[in-house]
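FORM 12-B: Structure-to-Sequence Request
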C-alpha cells in the first residue's frame, strides 16, 4: 500500500506566489495580460489592429497543456504517449482527416520519453499556467492574420516579437518605472485583478506556524511585485508568517544541480545586492538554488533530512523540478478541478447592471472551464479510433500530474479547514489514476471509467 501524505509529517511548507498564495480574478487578469502584449505588438511592431479587439467567445480557445509549434503555427494537444489528439492552425481546428494527414499516429516530432522534457525551446512552447494562456490566444490570432495575408506561408517568425512584448511589460525595471501596461494597471486597481486571501487560509498559515512548520515563499516574481501581492492578499504582516521569502527565483533553474546553481543575492530596498556563498539565516533573498536552501533548512529544523512540501500551479516551473531534482513532496494547485463544483452560483443575466460588481461587464469565461474546441484537459479520444467514447486516453499533461504531484487540489482554501494530520491518498505508480485528486477526481476521469486506456 502506498503511504498516505500528511502535512503533519512535513517540516517545511513552501509556496509559489502567483495563482497559489495569491489568486487572481482570471477574466480580468487574462484580458490585461492579453492587452499588454497586443498593444505593444500593434503600436511598436506594426501588427494588425484587429488584435486589439477580442470577441468573448474567442477565449474558449484557451486550454492548459497545449503546445505551439513555433515554425508551422500549429497548436497541439498531446496524448500520454506523445501522439497528437487534437490540433489547430492558429485558431482554426483541424479535422480528423487533416490530423491524420499531418501527424498520423506517430509521436509528435519534438516529443521525447525523457521525463525532463522541457516545456520551452527554440522549436515549441507549452502553455501550462494562467499567465501563459492569454499569450496562446494572442499567438493563435497572429497566425490567423498572417495566414490570411499569405495562404502559402509555411513558416512563422513572430515569436521574437512576442518575447519583445513580454520583456517590455515584465522586465526587471518595469514595476519601479511604471512602464508597460501590466504593472501600472495592477498598482492602480489591485481589487480588479487580485483576490483577498480567505480568512480560513490565513488561519491555516497560523496553524502551520504553531505546529512548528517552517513556511517559505519561492516565486519568480520580483521583490517589489511580490511585496505588493502579499500585502494586498495576505496583509502587511505577511513577513511574520513566512520565515523565508525568495523572489526572482528563476524557476525551474532554482532546482538545478551543479554546475548550474545560482548563488543567493541579498535584497535592499527591492534591489538585488551581494552574492552569498551560502545561506546562513532566514530572511528575504533573491535568485539562489534549492541545494543551499536545503542546507539552511537542515540547520533550522535540526534534522539531517527535513521533509519539504511545495505548493505551486505550474508543472514546468514548480511541480516537476521540485519533485524530480529536489525530491520534495509537491501539491499542484489545479483550478480545473473546480469544474467539479456544482454549487457555484450562476450569474443572473437579467440582474440590473448597477447591482453587479464594480469591475464586471461582459466577462470572458473562466480559463479553467471546459474548452469546446480542445475538450477535456484530462482525457480525450484517440486519433483514428472509430468509437471515440470507448478509446479514451489520458493527456500528456494529465500523465505528468500523476507522475510528479503528490496530490492535486483546486486551491489552498480547499484544504485549509482540514486537520493538519489529515491523510491524503497520494498518486501512486499503479494503474489506478483516481487517487491523488482532492476532494475528488475530475468529472471527466470519473465519467470515462473503463473506457480509459493507460497505454
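FORM 12-B RESPONSE
SEQUENCE OUT:
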Amino acid at each position: 500500500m502506498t503511504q498516505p501524505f500528511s502535512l503533519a509529517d512535513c517540516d517545511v511548507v513552501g509556496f509559489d506566489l502567483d495563482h497559489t498564495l495569491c489568486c487572481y480574478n482570471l477574466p480580468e487578469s487574462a484580458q490585461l495580460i492579453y492587452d499588454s502584449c497586443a498593444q505593444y505588438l500593434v503600436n511598436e511592431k506594426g501588427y494588425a489592429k484587429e488584435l486589439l479587439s477580442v470577441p468573448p467567445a474567442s477565449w474558449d480557445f484557451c486550454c492548459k497543456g497545449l503546445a505551439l509549434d513555433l515554425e508551422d503555427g500549429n497548436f497541439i494537444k498531446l496524448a500520454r504517449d506523445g501522439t497528437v489528439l487534437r490540433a489547430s492552425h492558429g485558431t482554426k481546428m483541424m479535422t480528423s482527416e487533416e490530423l491524420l494527414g499531418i501527424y498520423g499516429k506517430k509521436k509528435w516530432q519534438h516529443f521525447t520519453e525523457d521525463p525532463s522534457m522541457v516545456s520551452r525551446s527554440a522549436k515549441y512552447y507549452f502553455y501550462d499556467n494562467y499567465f501563459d494562456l492569454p499569450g496562446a490566444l494572442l499567438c493563435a490570432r497572429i497566425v490567423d492574420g498572417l495566414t490570411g495575408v499569405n495562404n502559402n506561408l509555411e513558416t512563422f517568425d513572430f515569436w521574437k516579437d512576442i518575447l519583445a512584448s513580454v520583456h517590455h511589460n515584465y522586465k526587471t525595471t518595469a514595476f519601479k518605472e511604471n512602464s508597460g501596461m501590466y504593472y501600472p494597471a495592477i498598482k492602480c486597481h489591485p481589487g480588479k485583478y487580485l483576490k483577498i486571501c480567505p480568512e480560513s487560509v490565513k488561519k491555516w498559515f497560523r496553524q502551520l506556524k504553531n505546529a512548528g512548520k517552517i513556511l517559505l515563499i519561492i516565486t519568480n516574481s520580483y521583490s517589489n511585485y511580490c511585496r505588493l501581492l502579499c500585502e494586498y492578499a495576505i496583509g502587511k504582516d505577511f513577513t511574520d508568517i513566512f520565515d523565508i521569502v525568495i523572489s526572482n527565483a528563476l524557476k525551474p533553474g532554482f532546482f538545478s544541480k551543479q554546475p548550474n546553481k545560482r548563488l543567493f543575492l541579498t535584497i535592499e530596498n527591492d534591489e538585488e545586492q551581494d552574492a552569498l556563498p551560502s545561506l546562513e539565516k532566514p530572511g528575504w533573498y533573491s535568485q539562489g538554488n534549492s541545494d543551499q536552501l536545503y542546507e539552511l533548512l537542515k540547520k533550522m529544523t535540526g534534522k539531517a533530512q527535513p521533509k519539504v512540501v511545495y505548493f505551486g500551479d505550474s508543472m514546468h516551473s514548480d511541480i516537476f523540478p521540485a519533485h524530480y531534482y529536489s525530491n520534495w513532496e509537491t501539491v499542484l494547485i489545479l483550478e480545473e478541478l473546480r469544474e467539479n463544483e456544482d454549487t457555484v452560483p450562476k450569474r443572473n443575466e437579467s440582474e440590473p447592471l448597477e447591482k453587479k460588481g464594480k469591475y464586471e461587464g461582459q466577462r470572458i469565461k473562466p480559463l479553467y472551464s471546459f474548452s469546446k474546441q480542445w475538450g477535456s484537459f484530462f482525457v480525450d479520444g484517440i486519433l483514428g479510433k472509430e468509437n471515440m467514447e470507448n478509446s479514451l486516453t489520458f493527456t500528456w499533461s494529465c500523465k505528468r500530474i500523476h507522475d510528479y504531484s503528490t496530490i492535486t487540489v483546486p486551491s489552498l482554501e480547499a484544504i485549509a479547514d482540514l486537520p493538519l494530520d489529515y491523510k491524503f491518498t497520494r498518486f501512486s505508480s499503479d494503474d489506478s489514476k483516481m487517487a491523488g485528486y482532492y476532494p475528488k477526481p475530475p468529472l471527466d476521469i470519473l465519467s470515462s471509467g473503463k473506457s480509459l486506456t493507460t497505454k
